[in-house]
Amino acid sequence: MLTVKNLYAGIEEKDILKGINLEIKAGEVHAIMGPNGSGKSTLSSVIAGKEEYEVTDGDIFLNEESILEMDPEERAHEGVFLSFQYPVEIPGVTVTNFIKTAINQTRKAKGLEDMPASEMLKMIREKSELLEIDRKFLSRSLNVGFSGGEKKRNEIFQMAMLEPKLAILDETDSGLDIDALRIVANGVNKLRSEDNAVLVITHYQRLLDYIVPDVVHVLMDGKIVKTGGKELAHELEEKGYDWLKEELV
Ligand SMILES: Nc1ncnc2c1ncn2[C@@H]1O[C@H](COP(=O)(O)OP(=O)(O)OP(=O)(O)O)[C@@H](O)[C@H]1O
Ligand SMILES: [Mg+2]
């Protein structure tokens, strides 16, 4: 599904990613953990195509096709979804309208007509029930005045509606209370299938009790210094990151 090959990227004169290799197969969930400032959000942004970062070497493939030359919209149409650590507020655009527009733009890019209103409504009803989202919430302006947990839940709702091939969740757990964490994680689990892949970025092992990853990677100073199974997350929770510093050369 996703192949990242020897990826170097940075901003202006600063190198942030220093040779990342990553392979996520369809049906898999990978987690990335790592200290603050190690490049986790940069990696997600570069995969999603944010133009502020410059890729200086390497390549990114989605289903064997390089996506490096695609802008963020094209990548989204190809099925890349990125949740934001800090979501934007859009006054005057409701949660529902935002998602309708996003879905219909993707359909348009594929040469399809707009989704019929009845079908859209049915899907909104199903997905909001799945994620236990209050209908009133759907008519509010996007992210305006949303609590931290509401923003996160809204992101997962967008993901559920868009049915991406590759979902990247950047610190989806930060700021969620215990019930919301469970609901969001259940939502992600229900959306897991043999046709999609998920990359979860988190600081805490706790989220990975709910969304059980197939593979855990540790990112430090722009490099993946360790890869293991879900037990690696437990080990990190216990030992922190210091013991991995010797892997950095
Ligand atoms: N737009 C930017 N301008 C300047 N520096 C940046 C920019 N984006 C990232 N960086 C720098 O690159 C490094 C990696 O940042 P990044 O946000 O990827 O870290 P992170 O691993 O996601 O950290 P956290 O766990 O705190 O979210 C940091 O030193 C950060 O200051
Ligand atoms: Mg980050």
Features:
single chain, 249 residues, alpha/beta, Rossmann fold, four-stranded antiparallel β-sheet, 12 strands, globular, binds adenosine-5'-triphosphate, binds magnesium ion
Number of helices: 8
Let me know the largest β-sheet. Answer: 6 strands, mixed
CATH superfamily: P-loop containing nucleotide triphosphate hydrolases
The count of DSSP E runs of length 2 or more, i.e. the number of strands, is 12
CATH architecture annotation name: 3-Layer(aba) Sandwich
Quote the distance from N terminus to C terminus: 30 Å
User: Which overall shape is indicated by the principal axes computed on the Cα atoms?
Assistant: globular
Listing every helix as H and every strand as E from the N terminus to the C terminus, the arrangement reads: EEEHEEHEEHHEHEHEHEEH
Low-confidence stretches: none
The helix fraction, in percent, is 25-40%
Estimate the mean pLDDT confidence. 90
Q: In the CATH scheme, what's the topology name?
A: Rossmann fold
> What strand order characterises the main sheet?
6-9-10-3-11-12
Strand coverage percent: 25-35%
Structural class: alpha/beta
Bound small-molecule species:
adenosine-5'-triphosphate, magnesium ion
Pfam family, one: ABC_tran
Family: Belongs to the ABC transporter superfamily. Ycf16 family.
InterPro entries: AAA+_ATPase, ABC_transporter-like_ATP-bd, FeS-cluster_ATPase_SufC, P-loop_NTPase
GO molecular function: ATP binding; ATP hydrolysis activity
In short:
By secondary structure, this protein is of the alpha/beta class. It has a single domain, classed as Rossmann fold, CATH 3.40.50.
